[in-house]
Amino acid sequence: VFGKPKNHRSRIVIAPSSVMDEIAAHISRYTTTDGLVFSSPNGHPLRGTNFRKGVWRHAVEELAEVAPQLSNLRIHDLRHTAASLAISCGANIKAVQQMLGHKNASMTLDVYGHLYTEDLEALADRLDERYRGAA
Predict the structure, then answer these.
(1) Could you read off the pLDDT of 97-114 as tens digits, one per residue?
(2) Residue 113's CB: how many other CB atoms inside 10 A?
(3) HEC per residue, 7-74
(4) In the 8-state DSSP scheme, what is residue 101?
(5) Rounded to an integer, what distance in angstroms lies between the CA atom of residue 21 and that of residue 44?
């Protein structure tokens, strides 16, 4: 990262080992003198505009051939997908907050709170079990 992040605080990004394995394989094949994990074809820093034009747009067009509903997929949509997947795997709101770098959990809840409805159903089932066990 060049410069400070949006909130001016660095953070640790946790990724599944399968993703880290892919990144390690990538690093072993493509190294730069600057230590960049991802770079332009000439080894310089990868700029967002160039990436969107040269890589992202073509990848989305190719994907849209088999999944037309994804024809307008934005890079930021991957962030929402990651958060949604984490929630579906049982991540609590504080973990999702940290993962996304939100300043507070209320922001995370405002955006992703609707995805916790299954938690409410499971909670109702557990409360029912507790009630029946106490009777």
Answers:
(1) 999 989 899 999 999 988
(2) 13
(3) CCCCCCCCCCHHHHHHHHHHHHHCCCCCCCCCECCCCCECCHHHHHHHHHHHHHHHHHHHCHHHCCCC
(4) T
(5) 24
